[in-house]
Every structure is written in C-alpha cells, then in structure tokens.
Hints:
The complex is a heterodimer of chains A (253) and B (400). Chain A has one domain: MetI-like (MetI-like fold), CATH 1.10.3720.10. Chain A contains eleven helices and no strands. Chain A has helices at residues 2-24, 33-41, 53-84, 86-99, 108-115, 119-143, 147-155, 160-195, 204-213, 217-245, 248-251. In chain A, helix 3 (53-84) packs antiparallel against helix 4, helix 3 packs parallel to helix 6 (119-143) and helix 6 packs antiparallel against helix 8. The two termini of chain A are 28 Å apart. Chain B is α/β, with parallel strands linked by helices. Chain B has two domains: 23-85 and 338-397, no CATH class; 90-337, no CATH class. Chain B is built from 16 helices and 17 strands. Chain B has helices at 2-22, 41-46, 59-65, 96-101, 103-122, 124-136, 150-157, 169-184, 197-204, 208-219, 243-250, 252-259, 296-304, 315-323, 352-364, 379-390, and strands at 28-34, 52-56, 69-74, 90-95, 140-143, 146-149, 161-162, 232-237, 261-265, 275-280, 283-293, 310-314, 328-333, 336-337, 339-344, 370-373, 393-397. Chains A and B meet through helix 5, helix 9 and helix 10 of A and helix 2, helix 6, strand 5, strand 11 and helix 13 of B.
Amino acid sequence: xxxxxxxxxxxxxxxxxxxxxxxxxxxxxxxxxxxxxxxxxxxxxxxxxxxxxxxxxxxxxxxxxxxxxxxxxxxxxxxxxxxxxxxxxxxxxxxxxxxxxxxxxxxxxxxxxxxxxxxxxxxxxxxxxxxxxxxxxxxxxxxxxxxxxxxxxxxxxxxxxxxxxxxxxxxxxxxxxxxxxxxxxxxxxxxxxxxxxxxxxxxxxxxxxxxxxxxxxxxxxxxxxxxxxxxxxxxxxxxxxxxxxxxxxxxxx
Amino acid sequence: xxxxxxxxxxxxxxxxxxxxxxxxxxxxxxxxxxxxxxxxxxxxxxxxxxxxxxxxxxxxxxxxxxxxxxxxxxxxxxxxxxxxxxxxxxxxxxxxxxxxxxxxxxxxxxxxxxxxxxxxxxxxxxxxxxxxxxxxxxxxxxxxxxxxxxxxxxxxxxxxxxxxxxxxxxxxxxxxxxxxxxxxxxxxxxxxxxxxxxxxxxxxxxxxxxxxxxxxxxxxxxxxxxxxxxxxxxxxxxxxxxxxxxxxxxxxxxxxxxxxxxxxxxxxxxxxxxxxxxxxxxxxxxxxxxxxxxxxxxxxxxxxxxxxxxxxxxxxxxxxxxxxxxxxxxxxxxxxxxxxxxxxxxxxxxxxxxxxxxxxxxxxxxxxxxxxxxxxxxxxxxxxxxxxxxxxxxxxxxxx
Lengths: 253, 400
C-alpha cells in the first residue's frame, strides 16, 4: 500500500511532463518522452560510441563502490575514535569542519594533479562525498550510546576493549548504518562530478557530459533517470537492512 | 486614459530619439555570451536565448540539419577581406622535455599525422565516416524533433575544414596575429605579453619535427624511438579538426602495410580506442594513451602536469599555455578554417552583410543581438570580434 502511494507522484510527473511537452511544443525546452524512452528501453545498445547504458552504469558503480569502501574503511574507525575519545575529537574536529563544506567538485583540479587520470582521482572525489556523512554519523552514533549501558558493562568488569566491542559498536551500529546509507547516496551523486574529470571515457556521468557536448538532451535525461533509478535501488537495499537488523532502535527508548 | 497614452507615446519618441542619437545606423552593439564549449548552443538557439553562434565543425552544420538555424558565413570568408582565409586552427603540440629526450618518437607521431592528413585529402568521404564513428559510433544525433545520422552531419561539415600540416610562413604569421588578439583580451600575462614577433615565433614553434617527419616519409623509413618507462599521453579534442589522429588509428592496417608506420589500437573493437601502440615496421616501439578533452585549456593543463606529452589542440590554448610557461612547442598545423557563423531561421540575415545590417537595426532598436562563442579568447571568439569590429559593431560581453 505504501509502495503504491509512492508511485502516484512519479506517474503524475510523467503524464504532466508529456502534456507540458505537447503544450510548450519546443523539444529543446522539454523533450517529449518518446525521444527519451527508446534510449531507456535499449540499455544494451551503444550510445554515441560511448557504450551502452548498462555498461556505463556498471563502470560508474565500480567507481562509486571503490570510493565508498575506502571512505567507509577510514571514516568508521576514525569516527569511533573521535566519538570515544575527547582528545582525538578535539585534535581533529576543527580540521574536519574546515574541509567538510568544500564541494567534492572543487577538488577536481587537485585530484588530477595528485592522483592522475583514472580510477584514483575519480575515487578521491567519490571518497570525499561519502567520507563526511559516514564520519559524522559514526561519531554521533558512538556519542549517543547510553551512558547507563557503558556503566553497567564497566561495573560488571568489562575491559575498555570489551565495552567498545560489545556495547558501543552494537549500540552505535544503527546510526553508523544511517551514515553509510547517506554516504552512499552522496557518493553516487558525486559520480557525475568525478566522471567529468578530464581523461574519463566511460560511466553514466561521462555519458551525460558527452551527450551535452553534442546537445543530446534525450540522452542526458535518460542518463539522469538511470542515475536516479540506481540510486533508489541502493537506498531500498540500505533501508531493508535497516528495517531487518536495526528495528530495535525504534522500539527501544 | 488618453493622457496615459500620450505620455507613453512621448516616452517612446524620446527613447527612439535617444537611441538614434547614441547609436547611429553606422555602428551598433552585439552582445556575446560564452557557453564553455559548443554543447549548449543548439539549445540556446532553439529557445531564443541567443540569436546566433560561432562554433567549430560539426556544430555549424547541426543548426541547418536540425532546422533551427542557418549558416551565414564560414570562418574563411569572415571580414576583413581575406583576413581569415586559411586561418590557423588546431595544431599538434609536444612537451619540450620529450622532444629533447626522445626526438624519434616525436618525429614518428608527426609522420603518422602527416600521412593520415594525406589520406583524408585523398579519401574525404571515408574519413568523414571514420570521424562520425569516432565521435558518435556512427549513431544518430537528436536535436529537438529531428534525428539525423552523424555520418550525414560529418559529410556536410568535412568540406569546410582544410586539412593541412605544413607550418608555412603564412600560417605562423597567422598565429602571431592571434597573439595580438589575445593581448587585446588581456589573456597573455607571461612570456608572450610583450614579446616581439620574432621572439614570439621562437617561443611558439619548433618546426624541426615536421621537416624530420617529411624526410622520413620521403626516405620511406622511420626512426626507432627510445623506450619510454610509461605510456605517452596524447590529449585530443572530440572534434573533426583532429581527424588525422582518428584516421591514423582506425586505418592503422593500411598505414602499416603501405608505409611501415602505424598507430594500432590495443582494442580494435573500441569506438574510441584509449590505448594505441606505435608500430614501426610492424614492431611495437611505444605505447600511447589517447586522452579526449572537451576543450583546449583542459588539455593544456594535462600537458602542464606532464600527464599528456602531446596535444592535438586549438592554437589559442597552446599559445596561452606557452605564455604561462608550460614547456610545449607547436610542431605543425592539423587544419585551417573549419568554423562558421549560424543565426536563427527567422533572422533576415542570409550572409555577412545582411547580418551586419540586421545587427545594426536591432542595436538601434535597443535590442542588440546576442551571439554565443565557445569561450573567451577561443579562435571563434577572436574571429567574431575582429569581424564585428571591422563591420562597425562593438562587442559587449553579457555579464552573469
């Protein structure tokens, strides 16, 4: 029931789009759906010599997966440290708050100079997108573990290591997971910025840029829709895990 | 009510009078919009945000094919009279450290480029098809309601581009002219800001590789380059102006069999191969990484950071980079001409003179026409500015 409610608006949007396209009658302002849908319906067909939608989506996902995993493997331990230790937090917080507002796109020129053309510079841009949401949520998750839980464990004779493993980590897990979900979403958004770096020759972001160079509005829109669909698919995955494993957060308190 | 009408009429008369006084028919303004490349131009034209544009091929042909505009002049015919005939356009540039370290490699790439240019001259139709394949996988372009084959667009565009390599005196002088134009735009701040013409030429050019390449072609034997530690980067533009590179790679078998030198793609099935081997007498002697760029400045940035050692690029970006101290030299031409001016279909202009008349009328009416150019200081920008000023129109940049 909830799912079908959520579908109403997209369908209305599509209908509204088609009507608006007919009324405006200028495909350069709003291309009619019939120029976009064929592109989406042939995901395995080559587009402007840049490969198929499917291939480019796969390439983009690999890049985002790489940047995201690196971000997680640094941000989660760092976040646990900052959430747990006031000293580490005091040491790093200013720097992180300073770097956080810089849009990943602005790092493009440096990314190319430091990491050269290819997966590493693109991964760096994606890494930056995912890093901060994961880090901040991890810090928040660790900090918001109930003091009483920690104290109970300590009175029962748990070592600091045991408290971290058995109490803090599980207690913070739901918030960390939310961080991963948000982080992946931002990482996926950054794929376009990353693939606009010079020297790139594939990926959904590159495909939209390439189509833009030739003013191919229908391909740009098809690329955007594909990016949206993949984004929602991953969000559903993260949410289903959340529902399954971290339900207790809503029940407790 | 009537009073209001007279007041409005009075205002209108005053405005017309003011317009007539400040902008007599012999002069006028044209507004220029920079669109960071050619991609948005058809859309801007079709949505009436601009009245016309100047672009490189094949984007000139896009307008008539998509029925949103008409071509009023190709770049070689722009005023002043004969000033832009055979105007320089794309060039082959190389980093000086590579030229010092491995001259044979530079000469070999020069030779392949020259041979490919000869092939283009002899086989224009096939070459246009190769470019359509490289740029669009021979697929279709969709502009608004019109879908056209990229092969058709390239076939129309190709005859308006002149593919030549020789760094002639005329061509070098043409480049020096661009230095003047870029100085006027305050785009040169380094070594070329105040250089004399002969100093400029010494800074810009090294025609040695062209001469060497020509004598190797004549002798029918090509030098074996020193081995390089890593693949050599070759930046290029996704434009038919760089057709010689595309033809060299796609027809590698022909060049290998006929001349004993070729650029063989490692993945022969790829539409736009990104790794090619330089073959001399069938032996692989170097590996090149082909790096496509959207615009020249980006490619020169890659050359500055030593990511690309060669660049197939427009001459203003190369000039600007040399001015800023990037260690590159221009080796030879890739093409001359190959740009054009487009206006909307409902414009009264049919050629440059009627375009100027239209622009002056619009300026006098207080609604100067808006023209798009790919970027400030680009070849197209420079030519349009010269041509407009020559025709008594002054250029106003649209600020946003």
